[in-house]
From TrEMBL:
One of its GO terms (molecular function) is O-methyltransferase activity. The lineage of its organism: Bacteria, Pseudomonadati, Thermodesulfobacteriota, Desulfuromonadia, Geobacterales. This is SAM-dependent methyltransferase, putative. One of its GO terms (biological process) is methylation. The keyword Disulfide bond does not apply.
Length: 211
């Protein structure tokens, strides 16, 4: 495993951004206590920033867990924007629903249980697609949902450096899956792609072609 960012740099940036939203803090505590993988607060802030810049009308999130990343997206949405949270685990989605109902963001969210590759296909004109499902499914996910993307959509994928394993050439299913996905996104004529080496790597791809 490779340290993607020097822990001292992470600590420094974290120190610049103390969080005061009690629901975010509660979810961070829950994730830490249960070992559940959420995007961290620095990635959360990046998602927030990108959403404010993009001003999407429709965000679809594949792999919502209990709603931490979705909550960052929803906070940044304008009043006319909507986020669809999708997870295969009923328990995760009901926890997410509870978190959102304790906030003023509930009306911006739709909650779906099921296989994200199937459910996301029901939405046309997706302005921002976030992928955070099982890692070997990333390429299938983007292939399945590409026709549903709006013109100039933004695709964001978490864990695109997968603990550095992609750079070490590891051959397990998840590493190979992420590597294939990264290579596809960088070589595609339909997207302009980069990776921000923050936490576990955040892939950003801008859709160049019209839908
Ligand atoms: C890393 S967690 C998501 C964390 C969340 N994005 C966050 O940062 O708060 C991955 C989630 O994806 C879900 N998942 C994995 N494969 C899936 C699939 N094919 N369809 C729907 N959900 C999936 C898992 O149940 C798990 O809750």
């Amino acid at each position: 495993m490779i340290e993607i960012t020097d822990p001292r740099i992470d600590k420094y940036i974290m120190g610049l951004a103390p969080e005061s939203d009690s629901l975010l803090l509660e979810m961070e505590k829950k994730a830490k206590a249960s070992g559940f993988p959420i995007v961290d607060p620095l990635v959360g802030r990046l998602l927030y920033l990108l959403t404010r810049l993009k001003q999407p009308a429709l965000i679809v999130e594949m792999g919502s867990g209990f709603g931490y990343s979705a909550y960052w997206f929803a906070k940044a949405l304008s009043i006319r924007g909507k986020i669809v949270l999708i997870d295969k685990e009923e328990a995760h989605i009901s926890h997410a629903r509870k978190v959102f109902s304790d906030s003023d963001l509930f009306d911006r969210a739709e909650f779906r249980v099921g296989d994200a590759l199937q459910v996301a296909r029901e939405y046309q004109g997706i302005d921002l697609l976030f992928i955070d499902i099982d890692k070997h499914q990333y390429l299938d996910a983007v292939m399945a949902i590409a026709p549903m993307l709006a013109k100039n959509a933004l695709v964001i994928a978490d864990n695109s450096l997968w603990h550095g394993n992609v750079a070490e050439g590891m051959t397990d299913r998840d590493t190979v899956g992420i590597d294939k996905f990264n290579r596809h996104m960088f070589s595609s004529n339909d997207f302009f792609t980069s990776i921000v080496p923050l936490r576990d790597g955040v892939l950003l791809a801008y859709k160049l072609t019209e839908s």
